Amino acid sequence: MASLVTCVITSAGWCFCTACASLLGACCGNDKASTIPPSVTSGRRRSVLLLFFSIAMALVFQYGIAPAIVDANDLTSFVRDKWTDGCSQYVDIDVVKSCAGNNGVYRVSAASTLFFAFAALGALLKPTANREAWPAKYTLYFFLCIVTIFIPNDPLFSDAYLNIARIGAVLFIVVQQLVIVDMAHEWNDSWVAKADAAEAQEAGSGKRWLGAIVTACIMLFGISIIAIGVIFSRFTGCGTNNGFITVTLVLGVSIVGAQMSGEEGSLLASACVFAWSVFLCYTAVSKNPDASCNPMLGEMDTVSIVLGLTVTAISLGWTGWSYTAEDKLRSSSEEESAAAATARASDDSEKDVRRDVTGVVTGNDYGTQDDEEQANSAGHAEVDESVLNNPSRLSNSWKLNAILMSVSCWKAMALTNWGAIVANGNAANPQVGRVGMWMVIASQWLVLTLYLWTLLAPRLFPNREFG
């Protein structure tokens, strides 16, 4: 009887695991048979999915494993010493747990940063490497996370990686702006295309889509202005914060004015950039160690963490699952080759349609071809297919992995408040907050200046080509 039950449980477990693996493969973009190679974008999706797992593991390390290790008995004293290394200077046990939790995030983030660094190097040397051996890659990543549990905090995590993550997070803030602008343009173009299609079917029906674009812009600008008002009412009282808020308003109004006075960009993109800059302003002023103008000093900034991770998740989802993101990561030569192939395929299809339509109208069979024409057509199809599926199109994978490296750094900074250790309403290391404050606001100024330049440059230099 026991053997029968064991067999039933084993069979059910095997079916369950197979179903989960199939579902995971479909989510990752490879729901084909094992004899068919993964699609071009499958590696990109698996990379993004691994980063989502990394964020979840970082939260587990920060709020689950770290406090449990600090409260552990002598049986785990070896691991406890590693996790509290550098935290023993603090007396309050809650501060020690906060310190250990931050270092738990650094462990997972350092593992993901190292993983994507090697993935970028591998993709640079072998373009198809990013879509191969993913079970082994996931196993390697989780093994790296386990190994970090037994490594002391200082100097690898609490010192070296903390400074590396700050630099990487600033780079991601700039890249995030590019992603947000691109998402806004794709969003705008999609709704404009739907408006044109609806207008072609029924006159006047396209105005609904254009109205939706205007409504989205009004909502984004409204939320941004309300947020500026809240920031101004809560975080003023010192010259630093007042200056940050003023510069944000001036640059925000400048980009909107520059966009509306010309044909460059779109209002939706400007609204998204303005909203992103307001969020960065809030992130900066909430890190000011001056208690006279920061009522949140010594508190965990949950709002900033949630908003930051939400925007990051949306950006990662777009980067991993959007086909337009594949085009943005390509080099210009690859874009030209793919565009030429697409154009040839489009011309051939248009010719076929014209033959079919002409044949129906005139009664002549223009759809038939002689053997030579069919051979030439087949030759074009083979060239087009070879260009579109050329492994060189995968050479942009290293760029994606480099971006995911910076996302890993941003994740570490977002979850740890840029390295600040806070508990019971006190900041144990307020100077860290000052460093994070200036890094965030400097990246915001860079983001707004770059976007403003993209709007003004075509007018200042009309004879130059700006792609």
TrEMBL record:
Stretches of the chain forming a coiled coil according to its record: none
InterPro entries: TDE1/TMS
A GO CC term attached to the entry: membrane
Keyword annotations from UniProtKB, A to Z: Membrane, Transmembrane, Transmembrane helix
Membrane topology: Multi-pass membrane protein
One of the Pfam families matching this protein, by short name: Serinc
Transmembrane listed as a keyword: yes
Protein's cellular compartments: Membrane
Ranges annotated as spanning the membrane: 48-70, 104-124, 136-152, 164-184, 209-232, 244-260, 267-285, 305-323, 402-423, 435-456
Region Disordered, annotated ranges: 334-386
Biased composition (Basic and acidic residues): 345-357
UniProt keyword annotation of Transmembrane present: yes
Family of the protein in this entry: Belongs to the TDE1 family.
Protein name in the entry: Serine incorporator
Species assigned in the record: Phaeodactylum tricornutum (strain CCAP 1055/1)
